[in-house]
Amino acid sequence: MEMYVDGKWVGSPTVTEVVSPYSREVIDTIPDATPPQIDAALGAAVRGAAAMAKLTAYERSQILLRAADILATQVEDMARTISLEEGKPLFESRGEAGRTPDIFRLCAFEGSQLRGETLPLDAQSGTSGKMGFTLRVPCGIVVAITPFNYPLLLVAHKVGPALASGNAVILKPASKTSLTALKLTKIFLQAGLPENGLQCITGSGQAVGLALCSDSRVRKITFTGSTQVGEKITQVAGVKKLSLELGSNSPLVVLPDAAINTVADATAVGGYVNAGQVCISTQRVLVHRKIYGDFLDALKPKVEAIKVGDPLKDDTKLSAMITESAAQRVGSWIDEACHGGARVVTGGQRKGGVFAPTVVADVKPEMKVSCDELFGPAVAVTPVDSIDEAIALANDSIYGLGAGIFTNDIKQAMRFAREVQSGTIQINWTPLWRADFMPYGGFKSSGIGKEGPRYAIEEMTELKTVVFHGIG
After folding, report:
1. Low-confidence stretches of the chain (pLDDT beneath 70)
2. Active-site residues: which are they?
3. If 0-12 CB within 10 Å is exposed, 13-18 middle and 19+ buried, where does residue 235 land?
4. Are 165 and 61 in contact (CB under 8 A)?
């Protein structure tokens, strides 16, 4: 498949194969962008930014609404593409593709609501005859670098707000899941977007992503991926606006008054969606010792009931991880934990890139399966003796993206909400929950900035102050 650069669909001298994580079959190829093509994309984006800035908010909103309507007619095709290139079960891919049109509709609305405010300049002495107000204006060129795990949803959360606020976008999707992004680019062109309003350039993050991020023509970078790559971006970016949604190892606390079956049901979802390859996947389950054994007994059969298999089959609930090496890493971390005294309650087996849904008990906080980002289909369960210990362990991490607690005690819930250092807090659910319009982003090494259309648009615009002199 070709990439879209400077108003044309183009190839390159070398290509990367897009391989199905489950079948290991080659689905397609994508171009490896060359340095001249990267420079051409940046030059075209300068022109695209000028064209986008001339569009009215109404015109931008209509493009987004048309794109949403076109996408809504292609949900099944998009879902199959997602499952083929990313490996998630088709029922999950249908959910991802099905909710994305509404993200663009939200962006269309929020982009039409950009506004400033009048400034009370006369509140300061010596300002008679002056009037001031603020304007929200586009940043200009936005580079959007997206991860493999939600190749449509997370692209939409970057491209939608950027276009809604009048920017030109250079989209660099994950090399393993670029096909979905390229199809979405075609949809936006069909919807009437100016030809350089959106470009989709493919290749490795090291070669393409860092070259885009270091260019002075770029004003805004929005990135979702690992903390390590996020740190590299900050080192090369220079003076730019940054939104970085990075790693996590989200904790879930379970207190003695929680309904154990409800918690087990929620954990069997929150820990295993997309084979655990979600930034807010439930990774660390901190269970009060009074109910520790009962919780493990309740969780085990629910995890064992997760149907594993071909992602294109309707009844599959868990399939391959993005690569076999990723599955091997999960296995090595679990083996390391077991050598240190943890135990596998269920799962632990691997076949190629498919890692069985796994529960690891008696996990010490310093083990990799707890303190690092696992990004795989396993939960690490640790006993705690009090809410104080649970909060301390929840905060004992370099990350702070999502956290959850199950309790019927409103005081304990509010204490958890106030004291846990995390960007999102879920009460009586796992960390894995997100409404597309809510502010979403982390603390500490989980990143900077917020997503969600309203909040992303604010970060993709500049605030300009205008002062009139001698008017009264």
Report:
1. 472
2. 245, 279
3. exposed
4. no
